[in-house]
Design brief:
By secondary structure, the protein is an alpha+beta fold. The protein contains 3 helices and 4 strands, in the order ββααββα. It has helices at about 25-35, 45-55, 100-110, and strands at about 10-15, 20-25, 75, 85. It has a two-stranded antiparallel ribbon. A two-stranded antiparallel sheet has the order 3-4. A hairpin with a 6-residue loop joins strand 1 (about 10-15) and strand 2. The termini are far apart.
Length: about 110
């Protein structure tokens, strides 16, 4: 069987589980959901989904394009100078973590 065409889908009106308002699940969005093999229809309107993403940080929900997430701060020691520092991510085992000064110094050396 071939891929479903946009014409096979029709806009659907769904009810948001948070605020109870109706929102449209467009034919294009349905095709996108099908292409990504998403099994469930959206449960929240765009506004409530945005609020939920902001509150949860949505870090476990895959793609980060276009979203602002809660900031992560991790205490660690610089791999270069040994100074205690905080970094805005969770360090990956086996990868060096640099303090701000060593990081900036490395960037200056690389661009020179």
């Amino acid at each position: 069987m071939g891929a479903p065409l946009l014409m096979e889908y029709q806009d659907k009106v769904l009810k948001c589980i948070d605020c109870g308002t109706d929102f449209v699940f467009t034919a294009g969005e349905q095709l996108f959901f099908h292409d990504k093999s998403f099994k469930n229809e959206p449960k929240r309107c765009k506004n409530c989904k945005g609020k939920r993403v902001a509150v949860l940080g949505a870090t476990s929900h895959g793609s980060s394009r276009g979203h602002s997430y809660a900031k992560t701060e991790t205490r660690t020691n610089c791999s270069q100078c040994g100074k205690e520092t905080t970094v805005p991510f969770r360090p990956t085992q086996g990868r060096p973590v640099l303090c701000r000064e060593c990081f900036q110094h490395g960037r200056q050396v690389a661009s020179a």
